[in-house]
């Protein structure tokens, strides 16, 4: 991600920096989906991501000396993915209850609205990014199914991105599948310090790069 943003803000003509950067987003989406299978409170996870989305957007706007709401940073995409997963969990929990049809319909409409919002408000990667998180979550319950699906999921994501006008270098994000297939048999443990450091790194590095590029 850092290499990608160095290319975007400082060296836009150096294409290999952007190519390396394509690897990052699918891994972030996978880790968000993975986190939703492990966390005891997905709502807190969503709130944390959404707060950092707002803070990051504000800091980026300040660094650019303009209100930057025509494009919303990747934390909005990740938080929309978590909220979609929360709605999916509600659908599963109520699938055998009397009021299931109404609740399932409302949650399904909610997910569709989130996808629409991601596109209308121009979240980073748009509805394609939110769908990628959802697809990862749906196959993460079975390791064998996950191993068979990871390449196909990222390919579907890339097709959606390119059809919707993204650069052809997006196909290089297929390389992320190598890292994900290695990871699937591992157990991820992360301390609170590490977690918050990663959160803070996102807005901090963007502001620094924008300021370097400006001055």
Protein architecture, described:
It is a single chain. The chain is mainly alpha-helical. It has helices at 2-9, 15-21, 24-38, 42-64, 74-93, 100-120, 126-139, 143-163, 176-183, 192-214. Helix 5 (74-93) crosses helix 7 (126-139). It is globular and about 60 Å long. It starts with a helix and ends with a helix.
What's the helical proportion of residues? over 70%
Low-confidence stretches: none
One letter per element, helices H and strands E, the order comes to HHHHHHHHHH
Structural class: mainly alpha
Report on the biggest sheet: none
* Percentage of β-strand residues: under 5%
Per DSSP E runs of 2 or more residues, the count of β-strands stands at 0
Dominant shape: globular
User: Which radius of gyration do the C-alpha atoms yield?
Assistant: 18 Å
Q: State mean pLDDT (0 to 100 scale).
A: 88
State the distance separating the first and last CA atoms: 22 Å
Q: How many helices?
A: 10
Task: Spell out the blueprint of helices and strands.
Elements: H1 2-9, H2 15-21, H3 24-38, H4 42-64, H5 74-93, H6 100-120, H7 126-139, H8 143-163, H9 176-183, H10 192-214
Helix pairs in contact: 1-2, 1-10, 3-5, 3-7, 3-9, 4-5, 4-10, 5-6, 5-7, 6-7, 7-8, 8-9
